[in-house]
Amino acid sequence: MSLLCAASARAQSPAANAQVIEIKLADLHEDNPLINYRKAVLELAMRASGRPFSIKGCQVANVATSDQRYVQLIQAGQYCNLITTSAGSGMTRTLEPIPFPIYLGGGGYRVLLARRESLEPARSIRTLADLRAFTIGSGIGWVDTSIMQANQLKVAQSNYLNLFEMLKAGRFDFYNRSIFEATSELETYDPGHQLAIVPDLVLYYPTDLFFYTSPGRDDIRDALLEGLKKIHRNGALLDLIQKHSSTRQVRQSMRGTHPRVIELYNDRLTPIERQAIETYKMDWFK
């Protein structure tokens, strides 16, 4: 079913005479596997909720829109009412969280990009104390940046694209990336194959992506949370993780492995976010 086909969504619902839940999703019009996964989870959950719904993009000008601007729009609720973003962000404190991690904890696993000549020194990293001897690149204002700083790691900050070039130039040692992003980013931003993922080393801190909706939109919150719980119980979400193009390869590559895992504390989570991550999780290594 097309995400933009409200009529089909209504027809699927057993409560066809109920009020249609109109979802206006940030980033709907972006076309990449990570965004498509979020859309797939949203649609799967809303269908499982049994509520009639429609999904369309935020009604904003066709220009680049930051997460901060989306949050402002969602807070107002007129042109946009749902976003998917990292837990623990101060920006989302004014929004209504749907307390369910859409990667079942997988969003907390990180890998390090490095120059190829730095791969050998990285083999010595076993503990958080070892990692503190190096400098890690991360984005300005990112939740990941504040988490690493709180764990007394040295962080070099810049914008997303600049960090790839800074790493190649040796301005810092590693670039902290999501397990779902790193491989495709190397293909896109490192055509000369100067960089690589540090093998057998994973960082972990409790975090994930959550949906956040406009204050007062209990209809969206309740239906989406009910649907997310259902697809977790019936295995549909796990099936999506195993089959979706943005998660399938990661899931296959992690299963049965025993990398060095360095755990970081995350003090940025709200109690609701922390409880959800502890409740709805899977072991990505099994």
Summarize the helices and strands and which ones pair or pack.
Layout: H1 6-12, E1 21-25, H2 33-49, E2 53-57, H3 67-76, E3 82-86, E4 96-98, E5 109-115, H4 119-122, H5 128-131, E6 135-139, H6 143-150, E7 154-158, H7 160-168, E8 174-178, H8 182-189, E9 195-197, E10 201-204, E11 209-213, H9 218-233, H10 236-243, H11 248-254, E12 260-263, H12 271-279
Parallel strand pairs: 1-2, 6-7, 6-8, 10-12
Antiparallel strand pairs: 3-11, 4-11, 5-8, 5-9, 5-10
Helix pairs in contact: 2-9, 10-11
Q: How would you describe what is shown here?
A:
- The protein is α/β, with parallel strands linked by helices and 286 residues long.
- The protein has 2 domains: 153 residues, 3-Layer(aba) Sandwich (D-Maltodextrin-Binding Protein, domain 2), CATH 3.40.190; 99 residues, Periplasmic binding protein-like II (D-Maltodextrin-Binding Protein, domain 2, 3-Layer(aba) Sandwich), CATH 3.40.190.
- 37% of the residues lie in helices and 20% in strands.
- Strand 6, helix 6 and strand 7 form a beta-alpha-beta unit.
- Helix 10 packs across helix 11.
- The N terminus is likely disordered.
